[in-house]
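Lecture notes, unit on binding sites. The following record was shown on slide 14. It pairs a sequence with D-xylitol-5-phosphate.
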Amino acid sequence: MDMLISPSVLNSNLGRLSEEISKVEAVADLIHLDVMDNHFVPNLTFGLPVVASVISQTSLRADVHLMINDPDRWAPAYGEAGAYSVTFHIEAARDPRTLCKNIRSTGARAATALKPETSLDALDGVIEYLDMILIMTVEPGFGGQAFMSDMMPKVARARELGGAEMWIEVDGGVSQDTIMECKEAGANVFVAGSCVYSNPDPAQAVRELKALVEK
Ligand code: DX5
Ligand code: ZN
């Protein structure tokens, strides 16, 4: 299975978003866009108009992570805007199966995220509708938090439940120091925010992460 690095722009210079994305364009596999609505999480970033604009300006596939209430209503539009993958939080969804179908009908991959305290039991009856499961390795809302190693058994269980074809993504505190345990647990998509954008050479950070997981 391909190992994919998805830099998160959350802690980049958001006033110069396209410039920041272009720094990793040649080396990243995806670009991770964190949409926050100040309700599902206590932080506010950007929404559909900004995501649509980014998609039109980059060659990277958009990995959209929606930390919003009422994804049943809002998520499919991100697929229509050209997102490659649309992730909603299972805690916020009313009818996750229908939502996955609606996302897939736009041509996007359908994914769901689980907060650290949310059990994989929440995915009962939903797995077959999913293309990716995102296991949060921090509380969603902010970049730069400490990686939660205690989520690794959950990553391993998600891999077991999802099978060989399911993409398993980790998000939060992923760095050169923590990426290997994520891979060993069964993840294949690695979001890295501050590790990439706090590096004076973000592309170099992506290359280092990639080299580690491809070893
Ligand atoms: C947090 C976001 C993450 C964040 C990760 O809620 O979902 O994508 O940008 O940032 P780091 O890699 O700094 O933990
Ligand atoms: Zn994220």
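Take-home: The first strand starts at residue 4 and ends at 7.
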